[in-house]
Amino acid sequence: MRKLVTLLVGALSAFTILVGGIGVVGYFGYNKSRVDPVQQVDAIIVLGGEHDGREEYGMSLAQQGIANHVILSNPYWPGDKKIAAFCASKDTRFTVVCIQPAPSTTRGEALFTRKLVETNGWNRVLVISWRFHLPRARYIFSQCFDGEIVMRPVPRDYDYSLAEWEYTYLYQTVGFIKAVVQGPC
Fold this sequence. Notes:
It is a single chain. The termini are far apart. This protein is elongated. The protein is an alpha/beta fold. It has a 5-stranded parallel β-sheet, sandwiched between helices. The chain has a domain at about 35-155: HUPs (Rossmann fold). The protein has helices spanning about 1-30, 55-65, 80-85, 105-120, 135-145, 160-180, and strands at about 45, 70-75, 95-100, 125-130, 150-155. Helix 1 (about 1-30) crosses helix 6 (about 160-180) and helix 4 (about 105-120) packs across helix 5. InterPro entries: Cell_Envelope_Assoc, DUF218. Pfam families: DUF218 (PF02698).
């Protein structure tokens, strides 16, 4: 019985250290990661995710004259009215293009961005995503093309529980490992 208690205490201690480590490293590695200043770019790339203000932010930057093109990743279901409204934008100050990524991942978004960069002769793009996704997105995009990448987070706060943050950090870390294993596009 004493061995079992010792084993359980050891396992619980290791689990606590692991969870605490993921939380601390995740907080500083993902939530406090580098954010680039807004600057003139050839195109604004809005990554798919949740409709959390990212599309509005990309459009507002274009309305301010930051870029002449807004590219919206569209991994959403065909009946998604919110993305459809953005894709139908009639703003004449810039063009809006909606693209379904293949695969429907950050890598798929980087791949279609690479094609657009090559086709249009662009040198610099601004990529918008969650704050905690920026390090992984920066890595993946840098593997797909040589142009300059400006990374900006969706301007919002995240009201996540500790369990949600742990999951988010773990998800981003596993995704980062996957990106490293996959190598360049």
